[in-house]
Structures are given as structure tokens and as C-alpha cells.
């Protein structure tokens, strides 16, 4: 749940952006989508942002007649004693009025016959089409109902506006309560990475290290990771979306752990890379320090007014210069960059937005690269180096994959790192791994 005060604040901002004689329709995740058979139910984040309501099959509507008159309506599942025996209780309509703070709460099973009543006499409908087929059908049927019913022929909504640009612009700038949750998510995830460092040893399986991470999440009151945990040792660290986590970890290899929890729906996303046996070898150390230097330089630059792409260029420069120095890349730095030769070793983006979603929403349809950073934006910073086992480089560098990822808030003057709890200096990692506190 989100406090009614915060819901009110968010809804008021949304209402201020709506034109008169309009309604906005925001659907929860439907119950019958196929994904749900495979995964636990996860609420639609835009719906959550304005309702804090975690049940499937629901629709939140705000009707704005004019600046003085607005109505909030919720359609949600009715109470059903038979169903409760199997699935437990749900909120129902009566409690929804106060808990979700709406003027009307109506049962989901009568939505077809009733949704159009709230849209009569309006000009504009704000709706994000294409998310759920069921929702599209409901909305377009409702609009057809109004058009076909001659008794309501005075005003028929004729404009449909996608609300995602409005809502996602709001979500891009985090409020104080969101920042606090993201901060906590970062802290818990950092503890999980620390636990993994302490627990790690040769011949352990990658999934066992994953288990240590998830144990620490649940210990701190978190049920879900915010994405599938990646534990890739040895060559697996070079597979960017490796989630099989099935190999035995070998003495002498590095392990890359990309894991973050979702705390009260807010995501964190940390990557740390450390030696399975607790001690970096020469080549691992060299490559690791290149990535760490790149990360630190990025963290120094990330503040209001800067464009991500400028930071990305500095990171690429550091990486390419150093790869030339140790003989992994050969040629002129400028050409290696302009021709993109380095991309075989660093092929992903430096950052993504972070919030309710782990890859959080952005200015609608706009790439993050050219956006000017502003206070209260939250993002990841994650340079990496991946030397494929088949790369044409000195053999001792092959099969080393390293990523170091932090989560930051852009502040008025610079940034605040949420994930410093997980150490990243070589000496500190080696010190922690000596502790081996977990049996
Ligand atoms: Mn990430």
C-alpha cells in the first residue's frame, strides 16, 4: 500500500495535466495472462503508482469534468467467500473506498455494462492502448456503446490520448518517499552481495551462490528479486544474460554476480565481480581496475546538467586507452573508438533508469543517451569488459568477464550512491572474502 497522501499528490499532478471533460483509464495486470502461470503475479507499475493496489483485474479511472470537479473510480474484484477458501481474501469494494481513496468502487464483473457510464459527456479519453488485449476490448466496446446509444448522442469522446508520456515523465523524477525505498533496496542488495562474497568458495555451484543472495533478500523482508539473478563464473561471466547459474565455480576464475531486490516494488540492480577463491590474479586485477576506474570516473561526472552520452564517451576512452596499454586492442585509440572495435569487449549501455521497474520508464519513446540529467532521477552506472574465450587476445585474458554496477540518485550538486554497501575496491573485496563467516 502507498499512503493516501502520496496517492493524492500523484493524482493531483496527473489531474493538472488532463484537459477538461476527460477521463484517464489505467488498468491493473489482468489475471488470465499466460505469464502468470509461470511467474508470480506482478502488478502493472503505472497502475501501482496511482493506486498502491496489488490485485489483478482492476481499473482505475479519474474523471475530470473541469478544474473543480473530479471523480475517482475503481473497478476491482468483488468479495467471494467460495474463492477465499482457495486463494485467500481480496480487498473488495467497501474497503477500497478508503484504502485506495476513490469515490466509487464497483465490482469487476459488471465492468462491461458500467464503464461507459463514466465516459458519457466527455471529449477526451486518456488510455494506453496495446498493453492488454482484454483492456483494449473493454475500452473500445465502451466507446462504441456510447456512440450506438442514441440517448447519449450529445457528446461522444472523440479524442484518445496515450497517457504514457504524461505518466512516465512523472515516474522519471522520484519523490522523497520513492527515493527512500530505492535507498533501502540498494542497501539490502548490497548486503546480499557482501554475503555472496563471504560465502563464495571453489567448487560451490553458481546456484548455491544465488541461494545465498536470495536468502539475504528474504532475511531483510524482501520476497522478490527485481530481475532474474545472474551468477556467472569463468566464461559464463561473458554471457550478458546468463541466468542458468548451473556450473560449478572453479578455483582461479572470477564470478560475476548481477542481483538486486525489489523492496516494496522499488528495484535495485547491483553487479559485483570477484574471484571464486578470494584472490585476483594479475590479469583479472588489470582488467578489473580498468572497469573500476571507468566506473569511478563516471560517478564523478554524473550530476545535473550533464548528458549520459558525454559520460559514456569518457568511459569508452578509459576502457580503450587501457586495453591498448595491455595489448588487448591494437591500433590508434581514436580509430578503435570511431570504428567501434572496442564493442567486442564492451557492448552494452552504461546506464538505465531505475525505479518501480528495473529498466524504468523514460521520457516516452526517447533514448536515454541524450537526456540532460536533473535532480531526483535515479539510474544505474555499469561499465563492463567481457573478453570472450574465443577472442584474439593473449590467452591469459580470455574468458574474463567483469561488470561493476552501482545505483545512483542525481542530487542538486552531484549524486548519491545507494549501493556503496557492497565494496568494489580489490583490497576490500579480498579482505571481505577472507572473513568467510557463513558456513
Ligand atoms: Mn543494470
From TrEMBL:
Its EC number is 3.4.11.9. PANTHER family: XAA-PRO AMINOPEPTIDASE 3 (PTHR43226:SF4). GO terms for molecular function: manganese ion binding; metalloaminopeptidase activity. This is Xaa-Pro aminopeptidase. It catalyses: Release of any N-terminal amino acid, including proline, that is linked to proline, even from a dipeptide or tripeptide. GO terms for biological process: proteolysis. One of its GO terms (cellular component) is cytosol. Its cofactor is Mn(2+). Gene3D superfamilies: Creatinase/methionine aminopeptidase superfamily, Creatinase/prolidase N-terminal domain. Residues 2-136 form the Aminopeptidase P N-terminal domain. InterPro entries: Aminopep_P_N (IPR007865), Creatin/AminoP/Spt16_N (IPR029149), Creatinase/aminopeptidase-like (IPR036005), Pept_M24 (IPR000994), X-Pro_dipept-like (IPR052433). It comes from the Bacteria. It is an enzyme of class 3 (hydrolase). Belongs to the peptidase M24B family. Pfam families: AMP_N, Peptidase_M24. Keywords: Aminopeptidase, Hydrolase, Manganese, Metal-binding, Metalloprotease, Protease.
Amino acid at each position: 500500500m502507498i499512503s493516501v497522501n502520496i496517492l493524492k499528490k500523484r493524482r493531483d499532478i496527473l489531474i493538472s495535466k488532463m484537459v477538461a471533460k476527460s477521463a484517464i483509464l489505467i488498468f491493473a495486470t489482468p489475471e488470465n495472462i499466460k505469464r502468470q502461470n509461470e511467474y508470480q503475479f506482478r502488478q502493472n507499475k503505472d497502475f501501482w503508482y496511482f493506486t498502491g493496489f496489488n490485485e489483478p483485474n482492476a481499473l482505475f479511472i479519474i474523471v475530470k469534468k473541469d478544474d473543480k470537479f473530479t471523480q475517482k473510480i475503481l473497478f476491482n474484484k468483488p468479495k467471494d467467500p467460495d474463492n477465499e477458501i482457495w486463494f485467500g481474501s481480496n480487498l473488495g469494494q467497501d474497503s477500497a473506498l478508503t484504502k485506495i481513496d476513490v469515490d466509487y468502487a464497483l465490482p469487476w464483473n459488471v465492468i462491461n455494462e458500467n464503464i461507459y457510464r463514466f465516459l458519457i459527456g466527455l471529449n477526451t479519453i486518456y488510455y494506453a492502448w496495446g498493453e492488454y488485449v482484454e483492456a483494449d476490448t473493454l475500452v473500445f466496446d465502451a466507446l462504441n456503446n456510447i456512440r450506438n446509444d442514441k440517448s447519449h448522442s450529445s457528446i461522444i469522446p472523440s479524442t484518445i490520448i496515450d497517457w504514457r508520456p504524461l505518466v512516465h515523465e512523472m515516474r522519471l523524477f522520484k519523490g522523497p518517499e520513492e527515493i527512500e525505498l530505492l535507498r533501502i533496496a540498494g542497501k539490502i542488495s548490497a548486503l546480499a552481495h557482501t554475503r555472496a562474497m563471504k560465502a563464495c568458495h571453489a567448487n560451490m555451484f553458481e546456484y548455491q551462490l544465488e541461494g545465498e543472495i536470495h536468502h539475504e533478500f528474504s532475511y531483510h523482508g524482501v520476497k522478490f528479486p527485481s530481475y532474474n539473478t545472474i551468477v556467472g563464473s569463468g566464461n559464463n561471466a561473458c554471457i550478458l544474460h546468463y541466468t542458468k547459474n548451473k556450473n560449478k565455480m572453479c578455483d582461479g576464475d572470477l564470478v560475476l554476480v548481477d542481483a538486486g531486490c525489489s523492496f516494496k516494488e522499488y528495484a535495485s540492480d547491483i553487479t559485483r565481480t570477484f574471484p571464486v577463491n578470494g584472490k585476483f590474479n594479475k590479469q583479472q586485477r588489470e582488467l578489473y581496475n580498468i572497469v573500476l576506474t571507468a566506473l569511478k570516473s563516471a560517478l564523478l561526472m554524473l550530476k545535473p546538467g550533464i548528458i549520459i552520452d558525454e559520460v559514456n564517451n569518457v568511459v569508452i576512452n578509459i576502457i580503450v586507452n587501457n586495453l591498448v596499454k595491455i595489448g588487448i586492442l591494437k591500433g590508434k585509440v581514436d580509430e578503435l573508438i570511431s570504428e567501434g572495435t572496442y564493442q567486442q569487449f564492451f557492448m552494452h549501455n552504461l546506464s538505465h533508469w531505475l525505479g518501480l521497474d528495473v529498466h524504468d520508464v523514460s521520457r516516452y519513446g526517447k533514448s536515454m543517451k541524450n537526456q540532460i540529467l536533473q535532480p531526483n532521477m535515479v539510474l544505474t552506472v555499469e561499465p563492463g569488459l567481457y573478453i570472450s574465450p574465443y577472442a584474439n587476445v593473449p590467452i591469459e585474458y580470455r574468458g574474463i568477464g567483469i561488470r561493476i554496477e552501482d545505483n545512483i540518485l542525481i542530487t542538486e550538486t552531484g549524486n548519491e550512491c545507494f549501493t556503496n554497501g557492497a565494496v568494489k575496491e580489490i583490497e576490500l573485496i579480498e579482505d571481505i572474502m577472507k572473513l568467510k563467516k557463513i558456513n
